[in-house]
Amino acid sequence: MSQDQKKGLLEKTSTRREFLKLGCKSIAGAAVSMTVLGFLGYSNAADVTGFPLATGLLISDGSRCTGCRRCELVCTMFNDGKADPKTARLQVGRNYNFGRDGITAAYRNGGAGVFGNFMVTADTCKQCKEPACAAACPVGAIQPQAKTGTRVVNESKCVGCGACVGACPWSVIAVDAETKKSKKCVLCYQCVKNCPTGSLKLIPWQEVKAAVRRNA
User: Fold this and answer.
1) Which of 103-107, 178-182, 187-191 has the highest mean pLDDT?
2) Could you give phi then psi for residue 124, rounded to 5 degrees?
3) What does pTM read for this prediction?
4) For residue 199, which of 38, 64, 74, 127 is within the disulfide window of CB 3.0 to 4.6 Å?
5) Beta strands in the chain (DSSP E)
6) Residue 121 contacts by C-beta under 8 Å, 6 or more apart in sequence?
7) What are the two backbone dihedrals, phi and then psi, of residue 99, each rounded to the nearest 5 degrees?
């Protein structure tokens, strides 16, 4: 892999299919998995999935996740003042039994989830470079914050139409049934801070890029 390819690997925003196909075995080839993730205590790079965010890389380590779903509760309690996993900005429960891809023809040969290889991972907002949720919003309620680049919902503009929900390729936006407002990740990182097993980690992008430069 050339230096340009390594740089592009970390800087581009991939679609769900492209990123999952790429996997962390390719990231290991860019010297990120074992260099940056190794000192965080991840013993098996193949068990780790990484997601590009506005200010860093959120790592969900399936080998550590127990599926307790505390992150979902913390997310909604901190942001909405109530425990409501259905509107959590990250989703674990739906991947608990059979993983992200559900039951497939090849499931018996390494399928994820507690009914497979016991790997449970969280679906999180990717803070897409060209967010489909923002493009679909008819009133322009989803805009980036100046300091973090985080795409957030301006609830004073949101009309609760749900267009963003249908547009999100990761299905991590939901409309609150009570407030009729869309709920989206604001990068508060409370999920990371409150994960009891350390399954969720946040790595600043400058650290990831530095690791690639050192090992190029």
Assistant:
1) 178-182
2) -130, 160
3) 0.72
4) 64
5) 48-52, 56-61, 90-91, 123-124, 142-144, 151-153, 174-175, 182-183, 200-204
6) 49, 60, 62, 65, 92, 95, 99, 100, 112
7) 80, -175
